[in-house]
């Protein structure tokens, strides 16, 4: 039985961050110490952390968080209890510190001696977990089965897409401890883990910080063994000054550090079927639902008003809302806009596909064919070209509209890739007209000049 350590008390300006593991040690002891948790470390975030953990617990108990080849592993959750680590009161749960519970590649490379070194090191250490969100190494956890999966699943949606909870937790920890350098060791076989933290947001909040992303040519989860060996041999006994002297792009045997995260297959690829987005998601930083694109206009008005697209469509609120979403996705990390869906409320368990059929007569009145092709053309001519005139279709940031049949209704699905240059929206209701929008907490929000300039410098002009 591992003896629980309370000696962990880091005070350097270095943060090492990695992820949990597929393999875990079973067993543990009863009795939960809240003082070792990230909730005690960050009391302002504790309520939100427990809320999400409770949601994850509920989903796991109903087998609603799934990933590839998960059948046998999910059996672990039969003994998973609603204990204090999830805000519950069950006293029968068996706990073990995270650093001792995890036995995967990174932790095997550390070994028992390396884990002791880590707990005695002056450097900070955090663990990204699909179940718990963010963990301190001394935090007590149960044995469980939970992954982000490929493509990312409901766990990823809860912790990352909805309100950027993992990013906010890491940022708060960094600010509290005055961290100057983060070493990110999250490259693995599941790209969603590497995308769990929006590092650009942390750079924007804390401009003085430097973030080094470890990369190795060693494939899949074997990369974590390389990272564990490096942390053990090169970092745990190194001084703060020595680690701050490490330069970006310097190679160490099998790994290299980058200031900019290497491409990881568009980090979060969209599902191939929009039904996954509609049923499994609330609106978030990557997903937006709209009931219509041309609401408030009758076919008669559409027939009279389409002789001058730029003058007329720029004054239609629904068209502008669509444009704001597209612009914000391009200026952020991309996303999916689905038109023809009514977002759920307190009384409804799921979002409701209502379709775009009611808008087809308007499309015909505007001089376009009463077809999905005609609908896509009017979205381009009356929304994208009017509100985002600087958008160049050659960049293919806004993918061609796709139309799918869901519950006898036709929905319009527009996938948006992040732009390599800032995109501005013409807003006739705002002074100055040109506005800069980003996604934040599932909303498309404008940034004032100073904030927009800071965001553009961080997001589009990263230091090399």
Write the layout of secondary structure elements.
Blueprint: E1 14-19, H1 38-41, H2 43-61, E2 96-97, H3 98-101, H4 105-120, E3 124-129, E4 133-135, E5 140-141, H5 154-161, H6 165-177, E6 181-184, H7 191-194, H8 199-205, E7 210-216, H9 222-235, H10 240-244, E8 251-252, E9 255-258, H11 274-280, E10 287-290, H12 299-305, H13 309-313, H14 317-331, E11 335-339, E12 341-342, E13 352-353, H15 360-365, H16 372-387, E14 402-406, E15 409-416, E16 425-426, E17 434-440, E18 443-447, H17 449-460
Parallel strand pairs: 1-3, 1-6, 6-7, 10-11
Antiparallel strand pairs: 2-5, 3-4, 7-9, 8-9, 11-15, 12-13, 14-15, 16-17, 17-18
How would you describe the overall organization of this protein?
It is a single chain. With 464 residues, the chain is α+β, with helices and mostly antiparallel strands. It folds into 2 domains: 14-258, no CATH class; 274-460, Methyltransferase, Cobalt-precorrin-4 Transmethylase, Domain 2 (2-Layer Sandwich), CATH 3.30.950.30. The protein is built from 17 helices and 18 strands. It has helices at residues 38-41, 43-61, 98-101, 105-120, 154-161, 165-177, 191-194, 199-205, 222-235, 240-244, 274-280, 299-305, 309-313, 317-331, 360-365, 372-387, 449-460; strands spanning 14-19, 96-97, 124-129, 133-135, 140-141, 181-184, 210-216, 251-252, 255-258, 287-290, 335-339, 341-342, 352-353, 402-406, 409-416, 425-426, 434-440, 443-447. The strands form 5 sheets. The chain has a 7-stranded mixed sheet. The chain has a 4-stranded mixed sheet with strand order 10-11-15-14. A 3-stranded antiparallel sheet has the order 16-17-18. Helix 2 packs antiparallel against helix 5 (154-161), helix 6 packs parallel to helix 8 (199-205) and helix 8 packs across helix 17 (449-460). The mean pLDDT is 88.
